[in-house]
Amino acid sequence: MLPDLQTSIPGPQSQALIMDLRAHERRNVTYNDSTWPVFWERAEGVNVWDADGNRFLDLTSAFGVAGLGHRNQEVVDALHAQADQLLHGMGDVHPTRLKGALCRELSRVTFERWEQQPGKVVLSNSGFEAIETALKTARLATGKRKIVAFENAYHGLGYGSLMGTDLSKFRSPFEDQLADVTIRVPYGTFEDLDAREIGAVLMEPIQGRGGKVVPPPEFLSQWRAWCDANEVLLIFDEIYTGFWRTGKFFACEWDQVVPDLICVGKAMSGGFPISACIGRSAIMDAWPESTGEALHTSTFLGHPLGCAMALKSLEILQRPDTQSLVEKAAASLEKKLKSLPLSNSMEVRGRGLMWGLVLPQNCGALLPSLLQKGILMLADGPEGNVLSFTPPFIISEEEIDYTIAMLKELEVI
Ligand SMILES: Cc1ncc(COP(=O)(O)O)c(C=O)c1O
Q: Is the pTM for the entire model greater than 0.85?
């Protein structure tokens, strides 16, 4: 549904809530000024309502999580049913049956589909933790300490994942505490490096937060071949791109390149913080048998609510209807964005339901103006000048048209 604004944005409730939040939340978490943010109260499909009763159109899928739409009813039902049974288990000690079921399903949708061989899985909570699992796995499996990562990469903000993340604003305050193990290569290019100390190549098959960058067709396969020749593991970070976001179930399927380890999160559950690192069994078996204490785990690993939501989401994501929905919405979004009249300094790039409109300037002032029109959008890229379109798969033609009309009204295009 199109936006329906009851108050000026942000309305009085949101303004009061930000004052309250500012009193107790450390600064540098929730950005605020007189135009931003609104406080979310409820959501359904492509719509979000704020604390003042304004209805917005969500072109972000809330960081790419709500691919199936906000509060997909079947996922909500699965959550409720699980909440009636058990809220928390003992992930690596006395787990629930759901943990095994989710690991089996993640193996099925990755390595069993790609290579007819089972994969093995480590569950975790946030995306960055899945990356850290992958990096630790590569260390154990290869014995080598260095990694290759790419310019403008985003893999999360934990100290381990910061070894891969490039965007300097995130790294620079902590740079001197980061292990000096990363060889940085421009995204989209291949370099025949000396592999003696390199254990892993960590890459996003399509860069998300780096600005919706689609690499040249040979990029993934060149690094695949190099990894094979040099006993280096290829890790794909599909935390953002996974589960249809780019128009294929996984973005690496555009190039038919299979990684050794894949990290997923975000849209896997539709809203519970749960992520996973899935690897070829032989590689994952570099982890030793447990003698009672897991080497890498956490309190909420394999959380039953997250597993129940992820299992239901994966079931829906694999239905032919979902694929048709994605293909239809993706075709419509691509056609409409590519037919925009752009000046020379602008560009439209991306794939599927993950697009960026590259603007001549930072989107900082534009985002609150869009909010005033009832549109939730975010910006990406090292310069913050890539306006991102990552809507839920159920976005309609009318909703895309409305967004484009508002961009015209704001003289962006
Ligand atoms: C490609 C990619 N990797 C990793 C992450 C980190 O995930 P999380 O924020 O859940 O730690 C993100 C988050 O945006 C991402 O886009």
A: yes
